[in-house]
Amino acid sequence: MTPNRPSSTRPVYLKLRDQIAAAIIDGIYAEGAMLPSVRALAAEQGANPLTVAKAYQQFQNDGLVEVQRGVGMYVVRGAAERLRSAERETFLREEWPDIVNRMQRLGLDPANLAHTS
User: Fold this and answer.
1) How far apart are CA 109 and CA 35, in angstroms?
2) What is the spatial distance between Cα 40 and Cα 49, in angstroms, rounded to a whole number?
3) Phi/psi at 18 (nearest 5 deg)?
4) pLDDT tens-digit profile of 3-23?
5) Which residues are bridge partners to 72 per DSSP?
6) What does pTM read for this prediction?
7) How many helices (DSSP H) and strands (DSSP E) are in the chain?
8) Hey, is 99 helix, strand or coil?
9) 115 pLDDT exceeds 70?
10) How many CB atoms within 10 Å of residue 15?
């Protein structure tokens, strides 16, 4: 999942996808682990099952999960690192330039930030 993106304009299925991606990166859904069923996740999130299915389909299209018919959907090996790498690239491309600009506007030196509490 991609935190810190403007959430008000993102479709719900992408917000769900971001949450699931974060859970995979954080190891909540470990590689080889089964994801919750569409119905279970929809109930947990208060979402429409079709919306959850669309989010899951995105993971399947990206090769991050595999479906075992009649059993469930499983996180594939390497999914967490692939997601982490994609999140890193997105952060550096879309978010970091705005952060750097704001730091410059505020007169903040990145070297000094590590020492602030």
Assistant:
1) 42
2) 9
3) -60, -40
4) 445 556 888 989 999 999 999
5) 68
6) 0.79
7) 6, 2
8) helix
9) no
10) 19
